[in-house]
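Sample pair:
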Amino acid sequence: MLTLVGIVIVVIGFVLRINPLLVVTIAGLATGIAGGLSPLAVVAAFGKAFITSRYVAIVWLVLPVIGLLEHAGLKERARAVVAGLRAATTSRVLLVYFTIRQITAALGLTSLGGHAQMVRPLIAPQLAIWAIPTAICAFVIHCTRLLLLDRSLRAELSRKTDAA
């Protein structure tokens, strides 16, 4: 039961709103020591988990880059670029994103896809032959809805400018 001390530390740390990374690290150390590991073995286990987990390493590599870009005015520059694109409406941006998702799903790159690209082919592969017509229908329907949204937003903007 003593090895469950880490759970208590996590709960108390989150209730007190202490830095989550610090809370989880202390909870891991306490659990390892309570489990009979030496402090050096616990730190070695953390290091091994850090090295074997690529996602953690990627975060630590990308985080400073994001910080530097933010410091250099990334948000302001992005806002200026988007403001300069007069043709970029809500529906057009969503259309481009949806098109990219459909193309990558058709090529088998399902990490950008959703339920239709991931779950259905695994559950019932004989239905995969219907995936392309379904994707085409979804694309046409979604494009139509986005174009109608764009039209209604334009009309609403026109009404507001006429009223002013």
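The chain has eight helices and no strands.
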